[in-house]
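re: ur question from the group chat, yeah i did fold both. here u go
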Amino acid sequence: MKSGIIVRTVIFMTVASAAVCAEDIVTVRQADMKAIAAATKSIAGMFKVPSTYSSPEFKWAAELIRDKAGQTLIDHFSVEAASPASKAKPNITEERERFDRLANDLKSYAAALAVAAEKNPTDMTDSMRMKPGEPMGGGPLGTHVQSEAELSSIPAEHAFHLMLQTCTTCHVRFRME
């Protein structure tokens, strides 16, 4: 899949450039955020045009997000980085539990997407898609799925929307702009 190769190249270059500046945590976390954004766009494209679905690409993108979320994301923001290049608000340290929960929720949703790719190795099936009128949950207040069992029972597209809402919630709360 040509778009998958392009996305992987962009992500590789982003991660590689961050490795050169590994001592600069702001650079590293910004590179990770760009990689997450590129992986998210790849998954979004497959939901938008299901005929472009590739289980290996979908899984790879989901696993990239999973690996950069959770504890990795928490560690990236474990100390306040006073830098003009940073867009992080200082309230992350004041609201550590909330930030950590969002980072872990992001990891859970991405992990659910990787599992969905494993379960659907050939096509994006109807079981991966949300049904018209299906309640979405989530929302701007960061409501999240409470358990692994509940998460595994919802369509991948729903998990994807919850993941996007988690990103939005975190950015609204903890990112300047």
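okk and heres the other one u asked abt
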Amino acid sequence: MKSSQSVIDRLAIGLSLMCTVHCFATPIILVLLPSLAALQLDNEQFHIWILMAVLPTSLLALSLGCKKHKQFSYMAFGIVGLCLMLLAIFIGHEGAEKALTLTGSAFIAVAHWFNYRQCLKKEDEDCPCSGN
């Protein structure tokens, strides 16, 4: 049975990657399939909703890993990513918004990946990722 910290790390990685895919794919999909424009996937509300899912998920998973492994750099890396994504919402300029979102989501995904890998490296039975 997988631990909650392992599942949350994986969920947070998925959410960060979803942000990246959204930024890259939405313009292409809207150009190629104009009927999908009615879904308003490029709406600012989507960014806010996804960020509201990423923030608590990332903070919880990274703080659990930080508490267990004492790797504060992973937490700091993730917080930088979250701050970049928050800044992207408030910046207003579409090009800068996309760049900040992509950079922020990459920071978050990498932080979770390192957090997850650190847990897998642990040999002790108390490691929440070991699946014991």
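fwiw on the second one: Helices lie at 4-32, 44-69, 72-91, 94-121. The CA atoms of residues 81 and 103 lie 7 Å apart. idk if thats what u expected
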